[in-house]
Each structure stands twice: as C-alpha cells, then as structure tokens.
Amino acid sequence: MENFKAFLKRKDIEISVKRYLIDALGAMAQGLFASLLIGTIINTLGAQLAIPFLKSTVATIAGTDYTVGGLASAMSGPAMAVAIGYALHCPPLVLFSLITVGFASNALGGAGGPWAVLFVAIISAEIGKAVSKETKIDILITPLVTIGIGIALSALWAPALGSAAMKTGTLIMWATGQQPFIMGILVSVIVGIALTLPISSAAICAALSLTGLAGGAAVAGCCAQMVGFAFMSFKENGVGGLVSQGIGTSMLQMGNIVKNPKIWISPILCSAITGPMATCIFKMEMNGTPISSGMGTCGLVGQIGVYTGWINDVTAGLKPSITSFDWIGMLLICFILPAVLCPMFNIFFTKIGWVKAGDMKL
Are 105 and 88 in contact (CB under 8 A)? Predict the structure, then answer.
C-alpha cells in the first residue's frame, strides 16, 4: 500500500473532491467558454451586425458547413477535455491525447456531453499519467493507453449520461403542463439549474422544442443564473467576471458551488420569482428557435430568440405589434431583476453566515 501511495504521489495523482470536482470542473467550464460559448457569441455578432466574414462558411467538413463561430463551437469537447487535463497537471502526451477523448465523449454524450467529458477525461487522464514515461516507447504507449481508455469509456458511458441528462427534459415537459404560475416557477428553476450544471440546457430545450410561454420561462431561469452570478460576484471578479458569466456561462461557478452549495440559493430564488413574472405578468414567449430557450444571456441568444419570435408573430398576424410593455418585460426579466435581486439575497445570506467573501471568486 505504501508503494502504491508513493507511486500516486510521484505521478501527481490526487484522488480528492478538490482535484476532481473543484479544480477539474472549474477548468472544464473555462474550456467550454473558450469554445462553445465564444463560438455562440461570434455567430451572434455575425448575424446581428451583418458581418460577412463571420456569417460566411469558412470550411466544409463531411458535408457540414462551418462558420468561424461554428468551428469554435465544434471544438467544445476537445477544449473541455484539455482544460481538465491541464487542471490535473497532465504531461504533454497525455494532454494532447485528451483532444480525441474529449471529442468522442462529447459527441456520444448528446445533452450530457459535458458530464461525459468530465468523467471520461478524468479517468483517461489519470491512467495516462500513470503509464506516462514508464516505458522506453512512451511516445507510442501513452497516447495509445489514454485514447484507448477514453474511447472505450466514451462508448460505454457517454450515451447513458446523455440519456440521464435528458431525464431533465421529462421533468421540464411535466412542468410545462402545469398552470402558468406554477409552470413559470418550475420551468425557470429547472432550466436555470441545468444551465449552470455541466449538461447542455440548450440541447435539452432544442430536443423538447421548448418555445412559447415555457420557452420564456426557460429564458428567465437562465438569465437569473447568469446575470445573477455575474452581479453578486462582482466584488470578487470585477468586470472580467461580469462579462464571462453575464454573456458567457454561470457554469464557471460550478467549482465554487461544489465548495459551498449555498451560493446557488440566490439565483435559484431569483428564477422562482422571474419565471412566473414572465409567464403571468409579461406573457413573455420565446418563439424563436427552441435552442435559444436554454441559452439565457449567452451572446444575448435568448433575448434575440425572444425578439425573433416577436417578429415572426407580427409577420404571421399572431401579434399586432411589438410594444413598449414587451421591451420593459424582457429588460426586467432578463437583466434588471436578476442584477438587483441576486445581490440582495446574497447580502442576506452573507449576514447569516451562509456565504462568505471570496466564495464566488473565479
């Protein structure tokens, strides 16, 4: 046993909650931001500002056309896996091998792709580290072992993790069948939580074709998480944190949530307030593409989806016009209320000792 412990120490393999659920998870969120979310923002800028280069196809691979943003988004699996490997202090050959592992686990995981990447990349990385530099043909053995383990685990686990993530969709669909007030609370809270967890809320909403009032509630929940965390952690993270969380992803806080789950209460409470306000007071519907329901303020995709829905409804004669009440509702639900309510709730939780200064430092 002592020899085994010495081997793990020599290989820098630390089996702990901190290493796997704080360091690795936090790094994975940064990998997601540097690929999928940046790609989404680039695509949004191209579409909304009519920038030809950002809207044009720059590569066609296996019959699929990719824009600049599309290429960045397509690399989310490799980016997350490499970020995890970096957090686990992987040697170069292991780190580079994780590119393939991340692509496979994310592609096979569907809506649960990030979960699959987390589990598969951690195990592949640690086994890769264990064999690294143990043979004279390290340049052959280390990639073979790391990639082989990663592909095998991806085939075995990723589809199941994707199915498990989609169970959230079953809960969301049940919630959409409730009367508007209850539905607003449930959908907003559930989709908001899914957005912050390492699963794809956007993929779930797309698979469920979540639009209408339920889509509006979903947008509200996502915004409560993203804008909420951005503003209530402003003292710790400054403008950089405001931007990276506010128009990026609240998943950046997952490592901190693992350390202190109570920091999650404020955004969840906020979503339970803004969700029913969206459905019952402002009648905010998201009738753009369903994927926008699960994007929140990421690249302002959620808000553009709501606006696109307004345009579509006006064109189809389902809505007479876009009113100032519509705009006030979207601004309050998506930006103002989360920016005000979450810090207020957080002040209370700080006073009673549930949250401490530095708990949300990225």
Answer: no
Residues 189 and 154 in one domain: no
Q: How far apart are CA 322 and CA 337, in angstroms?
A: 21
Q: Is residue 167 part of a domain?
A: no
Return the structure tokens found at 122. Answer: 């951690």
State the residue range of the domain holding 43: 2-162
Classify the phi-psi angles of 98: left when phi > 0, otherwise alpha if psi is within -120 to 50, otherwise beta. alpha
Which amino acid, residue 306?
V
Q: Which of 83, 132, 125, 76 lies closest to 104 in space, CA to CA? A: 76
Q: Convert the pLDDT of each residue in 173-223 to its tens digit.
A: 788 778 889 999 999 999 999 999 887 788 788 878 888 899 999 999 999
* Domain-embedded: residue 301: yes
| Domain total of the chain | 2
Handedness of CA 87, 89, 93, 94 (dihedral sign): negative
Rounded mean pLDDT of the chain? Answer: 91
Picking from 162, 195, 230, the residue at the C-terminal end of a domain is 162
Q: How many whole angstroms separate alpha carbon 120 and alpha carbon 106?
A: 10
Does residue 226 sit in the same domain as residue 317? yes
Please name the amino acid found at residue 268.
I
Residues 248, 107 share a domain: no
Provide the 8-state DSSP code for 61: E
Quote the pTM value.
0.82
Considering the domain architecture, whether residues 190 and 220 belong to the same structural domain is answered as yes
Bridge partner list, 286? 212
**Exposure pattern of 266-292 as b/e (b: 16+ CB <10 Å)?**
bbbbbbbbbbbbbbbebebbbbbbbbb
Q: Is 5 helix (H, G, I), strand (E, B) or coil?
A: helix
